[in-house]
Amino acid sequence: MAGRGDDSPAGGEPSLFARLAVGVFRHRGRVLVGTLVLLAAAVWALLRGGHLTTGTIEGIESAKAEALARGAAAGSNDQTLAVIFHHDEWTTDEPRFAQAVTSVLSRVERLPEVASVVSPIGAPEAFRARFVARTGHDLLALVRLKGGEREATAAFPAVRAALEDPNLRTTLTGKVAFLAALNELLEHDLLRAELLSFPLALVVLLWVFRTVVAAMLPLVVGGLAVLCGVAGVMLLSHATNMAQYTLNVVSLIGLGVAIDYSLFIVSRFRSELALGLSTEHALTRTLDTAGRAVAFSGLAVTVGLGGLLFFRGSYLSAMGLGGALVVAFAVLFALTVLPALLAWLGPRVDRGRLPFARKEGRGGAWHALATWVMRHPWWVLLPTLTLLLAMGLPFRRLQLAATDITALPERTEARQGAETLARLFPREAATRVLVAVEFPSGNPLTPERAGALYDASRRVASMPGVVGVESAVDLGPGMDRATVLRMAAAPPQMLPPELQAARAAYVTGNVAVMQVLTSSAPSSLEARNLVRALREERTVGDGQWLVGGQTATDVDAAAFVKHHTPAAVGFVMGMTCIVLFVLLRSVVLPLKALLMNLLSLAGSFGALVWIFQEGHLHRLLRFEPGPIEPSLPILLFCALFGLSMDYEVLLLSRIREEYLRTGDNTHAVAEGLERTGGLITSAAAIMVAVFAAFTLASVVVVKAMGLGMAIAVALDATLVRVLIVPAMMRLMGDFNWWGPGHWRRSHTRAQGTEVRP
């Protein structure tokens, strides 16, 4: 082991990372034992499981409307299953068909998870006509489940099993069926992506390292980070609302960054060993350089994901928390477990050399590229900037809408059921906009309030796109205003039983519920315009209404994201600048890094709109085009803004080393590009391989997330970091390193190197 002076560039006190390296080297056994304990705890957390839900946003108007209407049977369809019974030969008017349906529904109604069952069996003819298809072989029943969304989704498997009958074919659809299918597909997608990403990453690592042992180490760290990150999400789900595809996000980000960080450290360790240093000294130099870059890269990624915490009250903040957690594990294992393994292996890290091993050394393609970029910076800069800006143009046409049943593959029962429902029972399948009218107190159906509700119902029915209104004052085609007033004045027990039940379905406490039907698709512009029109006039007598339903949730979610995005973006960009300033002691380079990140993100976002919204490549990738999930752009921004810093920190750290050593900006940029270009592209190839595995997902939002991140990383590593950044730094010269005099003087003294002004 060299003396203390060798552990620090100036020969003074060893840096924090050098001391960490010495501690890990001397106590590597304890580090590995502690890792095994943490691994056992993670396995326990996974076996315990969690409470994962779909993405929800608290406090928006649509959520408030749903809460007000929850006590009414007709208030919300979120916990209602639409069950279509079919028999190829039996007709719905045959006794055996009715007996079979009654037997099934009686069994289901006894389940503790079921709140109510609505069936046309024995119902009045007017009601029966709505629930019996003209085919004569199909009948619709509605099964309402107890509890909220989480409880209803958990109860779905038991209810689905109870609806099975050997004589009938049953098809289920509805939001609960959709969520159950979505969760199952997300779990399947996650498993398949991980099974594919590890072999793909191994192939790239073998190509980079040319030795089996070195190639396996990043996979070990990546597996540990993902396992502990997923376990952490499971534990957090008991205390906060965690969306199901948080696991996919955590796995995608954690595996990518953990392998990248390990790649940086293993590469630098092998380089230091090749210089003839001892294992301990090589490890010290590695953590003092590559380890420092990893720590700052991890901090940058965490800062990026921290931007999601500004979306408090939504699933986005929980995703940011889960993502930051897995990145923290990736940095922790890269700076402790990996060095401990390297200390144990030493020169044996090069065991298992492959027959296509290349010669290590200077020169080659990266030397030629670095020289060419330094000689022709304008020829590099202008075409690449033009290409990225052109790729970003489609982003101006962005449309947002929440994930709906069309995100499921056509083979799933919930989607097939939705299509069958729309074909056989178009009124029941129509888009419903929920209107919850809250009165100050008392009965919502006094004569005065019933009259006001009737007037409001007629006004709504005349709106463009409305095909029907269902409420306590719309119980039949013959109900005029006078009839409504007489019914409101009569004692409830004097009404016919069917009218009593129907009125009760649309009233809960001091709230009256109205369902507005439209033939427009939930995510269409026409449906959104209807929601906005309903919100223009809210007064109904002495009451006020709130608007909910899927379309209203889309409108509110988009507004929620738009409202919180400026603060999140400002935080991410500001904190990233601070992190880079502390690392590089330059004011100019952090600002340039922000611009470069925005360029690569623009190209990725434009590609997402072009592919997933406008439908290009939909046959190749097998998805149905449609609007982008509202959370996807901000999720990608926060994640990719931090991930892009990986390569920026690695490149600029090496350039800065050379600039502090020589004071020659052009030489430093060329040398930094030559030494890190191959590593950056190799790391990017691993990330692209990991992210590309997620493009095979069945769920469109996961497919889009994986492809968007793969495109962004590919653009960042090929065009931005190895072409645009060096060309701009060549043109800016020594101005790259401008910073406050105090920082520059103190840092120069600490390095013991004179920096040319």
From TrEMBL:
The chain crosses the membrane at residues 29-47, 190-209, 215-237, 249-269, 289-311, 323-345, 376-395, 567-588, 594-612, 679-702, 709-729. The keyword Ion transport does not apply. Gene3D superfamilies: Multidrug efflux transporter AcrB transmembrane domain. Keywords: Cell membrane, Membrane, Transmembrane, Transmembrane helix. It holds the Pfam family MMPL. SUPFAM superfamilies: Multidrug efflux transporter AcrB transmembrane domain (SSF82866). Its main location: membrane. Residues 60-377, 408-749 form the Membrane transport protein MMPL domain. InterPro entries: MMPL_dom, Mycobact_MmpL. The keyword Cell membrane applies. It is found in: Cell membrane. GO terms for cellular component: plasma membrane. It is a multi-pass membrane protein. This is MMPL family transporter. It comes from Corallococcus exiguus.
